[in-house]
Amino acid sequence: MLLALHKSAVVENPPKIVITGSKSESNRLLLLQALYPEIKIENISNSDDSKVMQAALKSTSNHIDISHAGTAMRFLTAFFATQEEREITITGSARMKERPIQVLVDALNTLGADISYLETEGCPPLKINGKLLSNNKVSLKANVSSQYISALLLIAPKLKNGLELTLEGEITSVPYINMTLDLLNQIGVETHFENNKIKISPLESLSPDQTPLTVESDWSSASYFYSIVALSAVGTEITLSSYRQNSLQGDIVLSDIYTDFGVETKFDNNSITLLKKEEYQLKPIDCDLKNAPDIAQTIAVTCFGLGISCHLTGLHTLKIKETDRLVALKTELEKLGAKVSITENSLSLEAHQLFGSASQGQRSQGLGEIIATYHDHRMAMAFAPLGLKINLRIEDAMVVSKSYPSFWEDLEKVGFKITK
Ligand SMILES: O=C(O)C1=C[C@@H](OP(=O)(O)O)[C@@H](O)[C@H](O)C1
Ligand SMILES: C=C(OP(=O)(O)O)C(=O)O
């Protein structure tokens, strides 16, 4: 569906926006709940990725399709590898069949699993013959995706002797590994992470009287509201719930990064209020995002909307996500008149005269440019805040449901004018 965003502004005193639970926390807890049924979960994400995870864990079929969900693909591969007597095939969208999984498959096979490729070597779909994994030590490359490491950590306490992982090379997306370890600790699993070694002790079962674990709202989803406030007038405020100052999610780093754009975050009563405190003092942005790759698109578009330059690094994982996000960002920002250069792991945007030139002025007329989204929820959501500056249209807008199904309704609540 093509949605048209008509140039609008944030209303005064918008209602509080309740953002669904973190899909990263939800998908970890769902997997742990399949291993330890005593676990109770509250505020689970209503994202497509968490729904497919729930459906796959309930399914008795020997054919599982996880669509676009990277965490589900990686976590379930590890899970089904340990389910004795079960033979399944696991597949996903056309893009999922291009997203690499060899590092994880090799590690699981080294531990004793029986996993093979059904189409392209190194990528889904996979055939998994569930087995008792008899080894407990393995080394793997840590610079491709942290999801492989989290997948192994999640099944580790159910292995007879636990697990000892050696991480090779630079470790990417570290906060996601720490999130996995923290959730394991919360259910009583002993973990140890030092330098490039992680050790997990076995834990057979949990006591039946578990207190529910509450998933915090999704910080990556909050990023779009940070961008909206950054692109709005001084004094603009938006309140989001439910958030904690001591989050497990690395994307909380937004609250620091956006101070550079004049956005202040106030934590109060499980909510955050984002306030545009001052006009942004034109200053180039230089940011290493290897610990928070999912907010790269948001930040690049905020900088474009403010007319400032940015140099974003640590982006090597962006090429293997829902789309090649570096190429997608360059293509779509350039449609709007930006000058962007990319390498394998970075993106640079030149400062520009903000929608002031004749050609850019024309872009505010009519229905505006069509932004392509490449089956990537974050392309749709990252570009949407530009609706405060220009008219634009978002192609395949329902793609947002991968992580944030009520995104467009929530944008309307804060004042965006959107038509089909
Ligand atoms: O473990 C997780 O929940 C995630 C880890 C990150 O992936 P990489 O480790 O592949 O960067 C992130 O981009 C993804 O959205 C969610
Ligand atoms: C990369 C993402 O998800 P996944 O890898 O789980 O598909 C994302 O949500 O931005």
**Which small-molecule species are bound to the chains here?**
shikimate-3-phosphate, phosphoenolpyruvate
CATH-level-2 architecture of the largest domain: Alpha-beta prism
Share of helical residues: 25-40%
Q: What is the subunit arrangement here? A: single chain
CATH class of the largest domain: Alpha Beta
Cα(first) to Cα(last) distance is 7 Å
Report on the biggest sheet: 4 strands, mixed
Give the low-pLDDT segments.
none
Strand content: 15-25%
Label the overall shape.
globular
Write down how many β-strands occur, each being a DSSP E stretch of 2 or more residues. Answer: 22
Question: Could you explain how this protein is built, in words?
Answer:
By secondary structure, the protein is an alpha/beta fold. The chain is 30% helix and 20% strand. The chain folds into 2 domains: 3-20 and 216-419, UDP-n-acetylglucosamine1-carboxyvinyl-transferase, Chain (Alpha-beta prism); 23-213, Enolpyruvate transferase domain (UDP-n-acetylglucosamine1-carboxyvinyl-transferase, Chain, Alpha-beta prism), CATH 3.65.10.10. It has helices at residues 23-35, 48-58, 70-81, 102-111, 146-155, 174-186, 219-230, 254-257, 296-306, 325-335, 358-363, 377-383, 407-414, and strands at residues 3-6, 17-18, 41-42, 63-65, 87-91, 114-117, 126-129, 137-141, 163-168, 191-194, 197-200, 213-214, 237-241, 263-268, 271-276, 285-288, 310-313, 340-342, 347-349, 369-371, 392-394, 417-419. The strands form 6 sheets. Strands 20-21-1-22 form a 4-stranded mixed β-sheet, covered by helices on one side. Shikimate-3-phosphate binds at residues 24, 71, 145-147, 150, 172-173, 176, 293-294, 317.
